[in-house]
Amino acid sequence: MKIGFIGLGNMGGPMAANLAKAGHEVAGFDLTAPMPDGVGKAASAAEAAAGAEVVITMLPNGAILRAVAAEIVPAMQPGAVFCDCSTVDVESARAAAVQAQAAGLGALDAPVSGGVGGATAGTLTFMVGGSAEAFDTVKPLFDIMGQKAVHCGVSGAGQAAKICNNMILGVTMIATCEAFALADKLGLDRQKMFDVVSTSSGYSWSMNAYCPAPGVGPQSPADNGYKPGFAAELMLKDLRLSQQAAEAADADTPMGELAAALYARFVEDEDGKGRDFSAMLPRFKKRHRP
Ligand code: NAD
Hints:
Structural class: alpha/beta
Family: Belongs to the HIBADH-related family.
Largest sheet: 9 strands, mixed
Domain 6-phosphogluconate dehydrogenase NADP-binding: 2-153
Bound molecules: nicotinamide-adenine-dinucleotide
Protein name: 3-hydroxyisobutyrate dehydrogenase
GO molecular function, one term: 3-hydroxyisobutyrate dehydrogenase activity
Shape: elongated
Pathway: Amino-acid degradation; L-valine degradation
Number of strands: 9
Order of helices and strands: EHEEHEHEHEEHEHEHHHHHH
């Protein structure tokens, strides 16, 4: 397939490299990032998009997605599919899809879970919104870049699934960290705490797969001085997206709201910026008063 790939940063770079490695013809464009092996360099986003059957974007936020969509949609060939894999607000995802569809293109929002490790290994999970026809066109590419692609519904459904998932993740990580902090103060050994909770009703991905306590559970950023992994500021971005969506949809999400406020404090006023989102655990060593 002829593919345009725009945004070749930490995630997009290895995703595009995997598509090229699988034999697809990939034209890439990024403002700063170098082209990965096998990816041809286009002079602009429009040039990368022109003539492609599928154009994939992997960009930092919704404002940038809207700007790139405005540039590439007129350059794309009729019937091609515009597939955005960035994590952005539901409104921007829908706006980009409406613009693409109005120009006779297919459109998908297909954010991912799995991080840089998953992007490199080709084991991402894609959560996808858009038409079944567009999903079927891009499915073989999802199968190269990932291990699972779930068609969640109409445009915006992929972003909705992503921010709901990450709201649960933010809340359970905080709950897991504060429970460890309480266990510490109660004199409970951290390994014993893990042994009990990881096989009891308090278990979660945060405890079992990404344990925030160093030396306990499988390897995680806690074992590497809380170097990300998944940076606290990215978790804050996703929690803010979930709160923005909750506001727009009039949904009641008090735990999500509190998690967003705690990560905001951690990133903006404490030492959380640049650290993994599980570094909430050392933060809870000290009792914080409002
Ligand atoms: P990144 O900052 O490493 O990459 C983004 C790239 O987009 C950069 O190379 C930047 O130069 C490029 N870019 C910005 N504006 C551009 C433009 N107008 N035209 C062309 N290129 C442009 O970020 P990342 O970690 O690769 O994340 C990308 C997206 O994936 C984000 O939406 C993020 O939330 C999401 N995501 C990241 C992770 C992760 O673990 N890093 C996991 C899941 C989802």
